[in-house]
Specification:
The chain has about 375 residues and is of the alpha+beta class. The chain has helices at about 1-20, 45, 50-55, 60-85, 110-120, 135-165, 165-170, 335-350; strands spanning about 175, 180-185, 185-195, 200-215, 220-230, 240, 245-250, 275-280, 290-295, 300, 305, 310, 320, 330.
Length: about 375
């Protein structure tokens, strides 16, 4: 039991260390920190105020929502309280019996707060209402009503915009936790599986990848996060995918591939990150969205293949079994890409053509073909 807990703790520490070293996490978030920005440049985010507010987290949106409305209610309550005090409407001022207040039944700070809330939210006054004897109270009523309308529109727009963000649609797109390397259609390929958990399609879906690694150029310059394009395709192509069921994406490892130098026993010794992107337009909202994930060498399994997930029922319906979505099985796979291509080229060079005559026997051709005959 102790060894099991120790192993789990070690795996947990390895996972945390891996997450810190990633540029893109498994759920698509970019693990990057921007520092040493000049003080005046930080206000650039406030210039695009709407985008800044929409992109903040929900906890801050809700906190700002509560603080904004509660603060404006209390702020206007202080002004209503000051107007009532200036007119002698408060109880501790002992107004006469025939005194007409600016606002009926506003005789303290609590009642002023209730009147401010009722004014800004337009829920009806009841026993508290404006009398019209004070011009300042009429002007304040107009100002608070206009400001309340603006705040309502702004805060509701923020909430609706956050609920309709394309990244929420991206949550229903899932990638396999691991990638595999195996033979497909006579070629050595890197395979990744992706699925759409909704029945609504992503229109115009495109898939592509970026290989991120640190390299040293011929000039001795160290380039961190050097990017190399990785082409992924399905059997029908790489653009405008018919994304109605889980798809298996593959990248052919040939002599033009960045993975051509890899081998089964050296794969996990490499340091790189494969970032996979899926772009598309949501069919229901027409909003563009992008789904991202990444794979590091320890998440790429050499010599494995994915289990099939699509079957057909007796009634003729197509069924997707997501229990097999991420399951892999070992398959016969070449040890390395170079070995596979060298062996393939060797077999191609020694392909037998013509007549097999191992004993070098003389063969009589009784009916020779006349190539000059028209």
């Amino acid at each position: 039991m102790f060894q099991s807990l120790q192993k789990r703790l070690q795996n947990r520490l390895v996972d945390r260390r891996t997450q810190k070293n990633r540029l893109v996490t498994k759920d698509g978030h970019c693990n990057i920190e921007v520092g040493n920005i000049e003080y005046h440049r930080r206000f650039i985010l406030l210039v695009d105020f709407w985008t800044t507010v929409v992109e903040i987290r929900w906890r801050y949106v809700i906190f700002n929502y509560v603080i904004t409305f509660t603060g404006t209610w209390f702020g206007f309550a202080l002004i209503w309280y000051w107007i009532g005090k200036s007119n002698g409407d408060l109880l501790h001022q002992n107004p006469p019996m025939n005194h007409t207040p600016c606002v009926r039944n506003v005789y303290g700070l609590t009642t002023a707060f209730l009147y401010s809330l009722e004014t800004q939210t337009t829920i009806g006054y009841g026993s508290r209402y404006i009398t019209g004897v004070c011009p300042s109270s009429v002007a304040l009523l107009i100002i608070q009503t206009l400001m309340g309308t603006i705040l309502n529109c702004f805060m509701c727009s923020i909430i609706l915009a956050k609920m309709a963000l394309p990244k929420k649609r991206a949550k229903s797109i899932t990638f396999s936790e691991t990638a595999v390397v195996c033979l497909k259609n006579g070629s050595l390929c890197l395979l990744i599986r992706v699925a759409n958990l909704r029945k609504t399609l992503l229109i115009g879906s495109q898939i592509y990848g970026k290989l991120l690694k640190t390299i040293v150029t011929s000039d001795g310059e160290t380039v961190i996060l050097d990017q190399t394009n990785i082409n992924f395709v399905v059997d029908a192509g790489k653009d405008n995918l018919f994304f109605v069921c889980p798809l298996t994406l593959y990248h052919v490892i040939d002599n033009t591939s960045p993975f051509f130098e890899l081998a089964m026993d050296t794969l996990h010794q490499q340091e790189f990150e494969l970032v996979v992107f899926l772009d598309g337009v949501a069919e229901s909202t027409s909003a563009s969205c992008q789904v991202r994930t990444s794979y590091i060498p320890r998440e790429i399994k050499w010599g494995y293949s994915f289990l099939p997930v699509i079957s057909r029922t007796k009634e003729g319906k197509y069924c997707v079994d997501f229990s097999n979505f991420a399951k892999i099985v070992p398959v016969t796979t070449p040890h390395c890409a170079q070995c596979f291509h060298n062996e393939k080229a060797h077999n191609h060079r020694h392909t037998k053509t013509g007549i097999d005559n191992p004993a070098f026997e003389v063969i009589d051709i009784h009916d020779p073909m006349d190539f000059t005959k028209m």
